[in-house]
Specification:
six-stranded mixed β-sheet; tRNA(Ile)-lysidine synthase activity; TilS/TtcA_N; alpha+beta; 446 residues; Rossmann fold; Chorismate Mutase Domain, subunit A; 22 strands
């Protein structure tokens, strides 16, 4: 284990205000009965965070636990995990050690890949809040990093003190407005031990370069630069909130039964339409699209002939008549032949099928006899008792099934006979009770 940095002397100025300010922030941001998971690396910042949480969480009626992520990227990783275990044992805080494998093939750099793996593992622990030790310097660095990459208003908003997007658990940063100098002073006054990660000094990594080569000299020339940058991030966050409110208003205006009205979308100015597209993609869990993607999507949306589908990175924009919606980028595909055994949930191809028994009007289905397969050609159905059977292509067109989905929806057979396709069923299969089936397509909404 690397030698932990030892304290110098107790009673460092600034220690008492940090403790009281932390208690007030924690009380404001949480509610009694909630569960907090502290991300604990063993470094200075997370060590101070964990000690402050251990002091105040019980008095506020909060359940506290800690989690350490073992990346395996440093020779001392095992020693760091052991150190974190010792600290948690002394504090009486239960610790979970998570071993993760960092995917270095994503093309985003090892720094970002490690961060993504770490956050994914921590969020899988659940609870109400994942508590992170980001401080004011981290906020300033994040703003500079994102501005250097041309981020828009939402990116420049950097980090939020309490962020419930993507939760639960939400992300809680009770030290976000605290300078690191105060954390160091308090750690020394309390005689805490922590680990110094040697990679923090390596300016090959982007954030370290910003911290040491940009922010440090900037703060020397302008002592209030760090606080000003953090304050600017707060202003950007406020502006981003206003843009989100505008997007919500526009979304309500353009909403249609199947997604959004193309005519209503195209009545918006380009700036409002780009803002709405960003907001809706974010709401469905997609990464923020870049300007080029949005510009091209908007251009094609204006001139596309229905039906139309175009992929843009991880997502696709779709048009059918006046309806517009998003889907995942890969073209929908069928699944293999299989037999439904009575499961409530069945994954087939790229769709989910939900089966629910009903005592009212339902389908007369027999578990173990109902098969699912891709279209083979020539299948016909009679969805209306008073009309003759028709081929699936005609039925799909009349039902508004986009062409790219007509080969990706399952054909149902029972007793060897075609009885359904997608959500279209033979009239002879309907009864006073039975089964109700819902087919969910990936992100097929606006």
């Amino acid at each position: 284990m690397p030698d932990p940095e030892r304290p110098k002397a107790p009673g460092t100025p600034g220690a008492v205000p940090l403790v009281e300010h932390f208690r007030l922030r924690l009380a404001r941001l949480t509610q009694p009965g909630q569960t907090l998971t502290a991300a604990f690396s063993g470094g200075l910042d997370s060590t101070v965070l964990l000690h402050l949480l251990a002091r105040w969480a019980p008095t506020l009626g909060l359940t506290l636990r800690a989690a350490h992520v073992h990346h395996g990227l440093q020779a001392s990783a095992d020693a760091w995990a052991a150190h974190c275990g010792d600290v948690c044992d002394r504090l009486g805080v239960p610790l979970t050690t998570l071993r993760v494998k960092v995917d270095t093939t994503q093309g985003i750099g090892i720094e970002a890949a490690a961060r993504a793996a770490r956050h994914a593992a921590l969020r899988e622990l659940g609870g109400d809040w994942l508590v992170l030790a980001h401080h004011r310097g981290d906020q300033a660095e994040t703003l500079l990093h994102r501005l250097s990459r041309g981020s828009g208003v939402h990116g420049a908003a950097a980090m939020r003190e309490a962020d419930q997007r993507g939760g639960p658990p939400g992300l809680l940063r009770p030290l976000l407005d605290t300078p690191r100098s105060e954390l160091l002073a308090w750690a020394q006054a309390e005689q805490l031990c922590w680990i110094e990660d040697p990679s923090n000094a390596d300016t090959h990594f982007s954030r370290n370069f910003i911290r040491h080569a940009l922010l440090a000299p900037l703060s020397t020339r302008f002592p209030g630069a760090e606080a000003a940058l953090a304050r600017a991030a707060g202003h950007f966050d406020e502006a981003a909130g206003l843009l989100d409110e505008l997007a919500a208003i526009d979304h309500a205006h353009v909403a249609s039964t199947r997604g959004a009205s193309r005519a209503a979308l195209l009545s918006l100015s380009d700036a409002r339409l780009r803002n709405l597209l960003r907001a809706r993609l974010a709401a469905q869990g997609y990464a923020a699209p870049d300007t080029d993607q949005l510009t091209e999507a908007l251009r094609q949306l204006r001139c596309a002939t229905s039906p139309w589908r175009a992929g843009f990175g991880a997502w696709a924009l779709c048009v059918e008549d006046d309806d517009v919606w998003f889907e995942r980028a890969p073209v929908p595909h069928a699944g293999p032949d299989c037999v439904w055994q009575g499961e409530a949930l069945l994954h087939w191809g790229c769709v989910e099928l939900h089966f629910e028994q009903t005592s009212t009007a339902g389908l007369q289905l027999t578990p173990g006899d109902l098969t699912l397969s891709a279209r083979r050609g020539g299948e016909r159905l009679r969805p209306h008792a008073a009309r003759p059977a028709r081929d699936l292509k005609t039925l799909g067109r009349d039902a508004g099934v986009p062409p790219w989905w007509r080969t990706a929806l399952p054909v149902f057979r029972q007793a060897g006979q075609v009885v359904g396709w997608g959500e279209i069923w033979d009239a002879g299969l309907r009864g006073s009770d039975g089964w109700h089936i819902t087919i969910r397509r990936p992100n097929a909404k606006f």
